[in-house]
Structures are given as C-alpha cells and as structure tokens.
Amino acid sequence: MLSGIGFLISALGAWLLMGLSADGSLWAMAIPMLLIGIGNGLPWGLMDALSVSVVPKERAGMAAGIFTTMRVAGEAIAIAVIGAVLVGLTAANLRAAAKTASLSLPQSATAIASQIGASAEHSSSVDPISTIDGAVIELAHHAYTSAFHGIFAVLAVLSVLTAVVCILTLRRSADQ
C-alpha cells in the first residue's frame, strides 16, 4: 500500500510539473518536485527491508548492496533515457514548428535542441545558439516546453498505472 501511495504522490507532482511555464515562480517548481521526492522516498525503507528479508542473515549486507546498486543504476538509466527523449521530442517539435512557420533552421534541429538545456558554463567560447535568429529561439523554447510537458504527462500516467498495479496485487489475509 505504501508503494501505491508513493506512486500516486509522485504522479501528482509530475502532473503539477506539466502546468509549469518559463516565467513561473520557484515555488511553482519546488512543490511538485517535493511531491515527486516524497512519493519516491516513501517506499524506500520498505524496499530495503524486503531486499534483505528474503536472504539468510549472513548475506543481508550483500543483498542490500546489490539492491542499492541496482536502484542507483536504474535511476541513472532512467535519467539518461528521459534526457534523450526530451532532446528527441524537442527536435521533432522544432522541425515541425519551423516547417509550419516556413523558417529555415541555421543548424539541425537536434543540435539546437541539445543546446537548449546546456548551461552557459558548459558552452564553448563561441556559442552557436547566440547567432540564431530570435524567431528560431522562440520556436525552440516552445518546442522544449511542449516536450517537457509531454514527458511529464507520460510519467504521471505511468506512475498512476504502477500505483494501481501495486494496490491491486496486495496480498490478501490468510483467510481469503
């Protein structure tokens, strides 16, 4: 039940992130992120306990280490996949918007999409995005926002579905 509730809280946070705009306040982002963190953190103790409860006591440390390693590896893979999907969706949205607006992109849509999330500290000394026309930058920002909202919509739906699976598969008492 705790896992299901955690997934529902995370889904609420992801759903709230879909409504963010670029000019929103810090609290508009902090509250959904806090909900996602709480939702993800709720079942951690339960999962840790389950990972060591199914092995002999002398192997509990090994089980906890393997479980933690797999959780962190899974999180790293998920972050990489979501980042790649974000760039891909942004590029696709940008290509479609440029075509609709009859604008020619100065470089590939994927290159522009990749540069959107890069901070100024990590950019090269000659920043190619600074030479891009303002209309293309505006399209790129809208393309990114649309991709961002789409990803969080999918994550919210997946979180709700996972919560439903968790709740529906709860073990019933021994008399049932």
UniProtKB/TrEMBL annotation:
This is Major facilitator superfamily protein. The chain crosses the membrane at residues 31-55, 76-98, 147-170. It is a multi-pass membrane protein. It comes from the Bacteria. Residues 1-174 form the Major facilitator superfamily (MFS) profile domain. One of its GO terms (cellular component) is plasma membrane. The keyword Membrane applies. GO terms for molecular function: transmembrane transporter activity. It is found in: Endomembrane system. Keywords: Membrane, Transmembrane, Transmembrane helix, Transport. InterPro entries: MFS_dom (IPR020846), MFS_trans_sf (IPR036259).
